[in-house]
Amino acid sequence: MPREYVTQNHFPNYFNGSEIIVAGKLTNRSSDSLHVQVTASNSDRSLVMEKDISLSGQERETKRRVEEAEAGPNADGYVERLWGFLSVKDGLNGRLRSHTSSERENFTQRATELSLSYNFLTPLTQMKVETPQVLADGTIAEAEPTEAPSAHSDLANQLAEEEPMGDTPQSLHRNKEQPATVPIAGKATNGLKRPGKKSVTLSKTSADGDPHFVVDFPLSKLTVCFNINGEPGDVLRLVTDHKNSGVTVNGKLIGAPAPPGSHKQQRTYFSSIIIVVDKPRRSYIEVTPRKVIVDGLDRLILPCSSSVTVDNKDLAVAIVANANVTVTIQGTIQFIILMHIYKNPAPYQRDHLGFYIADSKGLSKDTHGLLGQFIYEEVTLTQFPGNITAATGNDTQEISITQTNPEAGHMALQVKERTVDVVKKSRHIYSGTHTVHCWFAKNNAAKLIDGQYRDYVVSHMFDTEDWPHGTNAH
Known about the structure:
Elements: E1 33-41, E2 46-54, H1 55-69, H2 78-97, H3 101-117, E3 185-189, E4 192-195, E5 206-208, E6 212-217, E7 222-227, E8 235-241, E9 247-257, E10 266-277, E11 283-287, E12 291-295, E13 299-303, E14 307-312, E15 315-320, E16 324-329, E17 333-340, E18 352-359, E19 380-384, E20 388-389, E21 400-401, E22 410-415, E23 418-429, E24 434-441, H4 442-445, E25 457-458
Parallel strand pairs: 7-24
Antiparallel strand pairs: 1-2, 2-14, 3-4, 5-6, 5-18, 6-7, 8-9, 8-25, 9-10, 10-11, 11-12, 12-13, 14-15, 15-16, 16-17, 17-18, 19-22, 20-21, 22-23, 23-24
Helix pairs in contact: 2-3
Region (Disordered): 186-205
Domain Inter-alpha-trypsin inhibitor heavy chain C-terminal: 245-443
Organism: Pangasianodon hypophthalmus
């Protein structure tokens, strides 16, 4: 709704238990929903909350309340008059906060028009009590119209309701170009973290699904993938850079029965992911498909069903309702966690999470973990003669490699002076919206990762211990 149809929507302070009322007049009555955005900030944090409110669902209850309010005598148009009263009050306050003569004149004109329209006695209007004039024919002459006092009069400059706020009001309505959902935190505006307007291009490096791991090697122009067949309840170390950036990422697995026809007896997915940040101070973010816990200077529990952005100096968390969570650390590290939520899940489906590395510039070359160990690595492919057919697996596609293909023969991956047999596969990422062609390492990424996959199972979600193992033999 346009700014001129909304009452005061900027408040300098809010205390626990206090009440804030904002009234507005809809200009598009055919709309099915109303988009509401609330921003708040203090000395070290800013918060943005968004929600789309269904208007059709509120129509019956609103109608009942309006009928009750207008049931009394002389109460016709009660709700509209209430909006008019609050708008006049807001205009009078705006006059005191105005910084220019044109701004002051606009507030004055708006408040005056509403005062006259609804017959409100305000500092901008006058009420005259006169003895009616009886004409010769016995009728009463019409009263002359009441004029508003000058904007420069002493009466117009008086306001008894509230003290001036001192800040320019900010609009609560959504701009036309602003999307309804927000992929990542945007740039700061007046100290607040605003939702961005453009979606971020994610890296392929991720752990999603069963869980399926994808590692992108941009310098080598190669993408490698592997599976980890863990057990329900296992906590996997995804990223650890505890000594340098202070960042550690762990994910907990949940079990689910395999779908009919699957070669597996069970599947495992990430049910929760924790990001621990030890620098410059201890904090953590815990993400599940239903809620996000941000524990830093204060502890916030945020529902995943609402779009919220929290900016706490070196740590920003942006939630896009029921879609994803973006965590930005010190402006140089960014992780995106996708939420996979089923409305009517099949017996083999579980709500789960996917973990993606969007920006790793702030991670050191000592970074480790199932994904972290490859961030600064380069790999090469070598070719052996022969024909290989890739096995079919979950979210993969069978591809035959023959001598007629450019990538003919049995391929081997050289990583950290180790040789790993790989085959070509296709993998679906970003909730199935993108397909990645990758070289697949079998047997829980044997020889591809340092050590064995059980070395990456940690004791609990907040474990930040350094990588205690060495590398594999050649």
